Amino acid sequence: MRRELQDLHSHPGFTALAASRFISNVGNGISPVALAFGVLALPGATAKDLSIVMAARMFPMIALMLFGGVVGDRFKRNRIVGGADVIGSAFAAISAISLIVNSSSVLLLALMGALFGVLNALWWPAMSGVLPEVLPKEKLQHGNAVIALTTNIGYVAGALLGGILVTAFGSGWALLVDAISFFIAGIIVWNLDLPTIVRQNVNTVFQDLKSGWREFISRSWVVTVVVAFAIINVAYESLLQILGPLNFSKFDNGPQFWSFNLAALTTGMLIGSVISLKVHFGRPLLFAMLIISATAIWDFSLALSTPLWISLICAFLAGIAIDIFMVVWNTSLQSHIPEESYSRVVAYDAFGSFGLSPLGIAAAGPLAELFGVSTMLYITGALTLTAALAALSVKSVRDLKLVRKA
């Protein structure tokens, strides 16, 4: 492993990119705990209010994702990423300060989330294309695994820190640390010294979207996995954003209990990164979709109100599966999709994979009030299990192998 790390370090920009992902994900680990319990602590707040705030970030992100893909293929990607992080830190700081001075509201938090979602629509397609500009194709699996490793270490630290900060000082101060982490990470990525890639492009935005669509739709394995994850992410985001916090909101130390679950999930992701760094997967998507189906055990453990240690083990195992899938999926896309259209294909991937998630988040709170949190957790687990296994009925998903381009 040391040799792989030294090799990756020799490529200019890689270490700085990994450092930026660690720093920003400390904030990302804090954010879901701080924001969820910050909303629930507002006077008269309900599960419906939590759904409104959490969905507000997702709707503009999905609506503008395809436009973000065009931008990512036209301009310098690290500047898009860095700029989005720096500007986003200001929106996070406004939310934080409003909570600290007790002048926050569901409307304000939803508005800041929506503005952050606009930036995410630019950030996501561009960020996924930065690593292929740093590393050669044959190093991408190792690079993705190490980036995931540093990301997950940051998220574990952030999730644990988030629970402590929210319990001891309140959600506002926790969100302020999140804002600072985004600002620092954005500056680092902005200043990456990457070679300028000349992209000769006289097409209109519509023409770019059309050509990106052709690249996306031409691969049945891409379309199948994206359709499956349209369902899986409805379940996962509903659990992560709404049902998990609601499940622990009845406890005085609920923020810490939920932060422990998030930390266990991300510790599992960390182990998944190590596995992905050392193991070559002969049929990567076959293995990845099988283990994704098994992540439903986390949903079921929460639905059954099992002891905390059981839900932590289930979250840990789910994290291993999720991270292996992400490394496999990113490497598969980076190996098969031409660089000049990569951000657009990733945008179609994100648009399809998360297109229904805002609706799931918006509905999860009201449905949990109507049918109960446990019932909704059984449903999210069943959706994940069914969608992941159904994707394996497509031969190109089962048989895909990684291609190393020269």
From TrEMBL:
Protein's cellular compartments: Cell membrane
Keywords from the UniProt entry: Cell membrane, Membrane, Transmembrane, Transmembrane helix
The UniProt record lists the keyword Transmembrane helix: yes
GO CC terms in record: plasma membrane
Domain Major facilitator superfamily (MFS) profile: 13-399
A GO molecular-function annotation: transmembrane transporter activity
Domain of life: Bacteria
Gene3D superfamilies in UniProt: MFS general substrate transporter like domains
One of the Pfam families matching this protein, by short name: MFS_1
Protein name: Major facilitator superfamily protein
Source organism per UniProt: Candidatus Planktophila lacus
Lineage start: Bacteria, Bacillati, Actinomycetota, Actinomycetes, Candidatus Nanopelagicales
